[in-house]
């Protein structure tokens, strides 16, 4: 947790990736400035995400239950405004 809380002043950054945000310590989540949210089915986990990442509009967070493969909500300092994006372009032959 110390790296999450103090790492930035030393030029260290931490990427936290989980399918269960409820199980990540609240101090770690509170230090996160960015969110990349992919499909999530748990209403309880979505509630945690919406609470911790209040800079992401609740309506967009709630849509995560219907995201298709490769779709995500991106919000925070990583982008100018919250946006729905798609990873991995598919090319037809």
Structural class designation: alpha+beta
Distance between the termini: 47 Å
Q: Beta fraction of the residues?
A: 15-25%
Low-confidence stretches: none
Tell me how many strands there are: 3
Strand order of the largest sheet: 1-2-3
> What about the largest sheet?
3 strands, antiparallel
Cα-atom Rg, whole angstroms? 14 Å
Query: What portion of residues is helical?
Result: 25-40%
Shape: globular
Compressed to H and E, one letter per element, the order equals HHEHHEE
Q: Characteristics of this structure?
A:
3 strands; alpha+beta; single chain; 93 residues
Please, could you describe this protein's structure?
By secondary structure, the protein is α+β, with helices and mostly antiparallel strands. 27% of the residues lie in helices and 15% in strands. The chain is built from four helices and three strands. It has a three-stranded antiparallel sheet, with no helix packed on it. A hairpin with a 6-residue loop joins β2 and β3. The chain is globular, with a radius of gyration of 14 Å.
What is shown here, in short?
The chain is built from four helices and three strands, in the order ααβααββ.
Protein topology:
Elements: H1 2-6, H2 26-30, E1 34-37, H3 43-52, H4 58-62, E2 71-76, E3 83-86
Antiparallel strand pairs: 1-2, 2-3
């Amino acid at each position: 947790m110390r790296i999450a809380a103090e790492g930035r002043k030393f030029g260290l950054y931490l990427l936290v990736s989980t399918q269960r945000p409820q199980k990540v310590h609240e101090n770690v989540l509170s230090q996160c400035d960015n969110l990349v949210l992919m499909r999530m089915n748990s209403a309880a986990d979505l509630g945690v995400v919406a609470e911790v990442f209040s800079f992401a509009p609740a309506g967009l967070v709630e849509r995560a239950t219907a995201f298709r493969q490769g779709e995500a909500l991106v919000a925070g300092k990583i982008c100018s405004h919250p946006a729905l994006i798609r990873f991995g372009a598919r090319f037809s032959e």
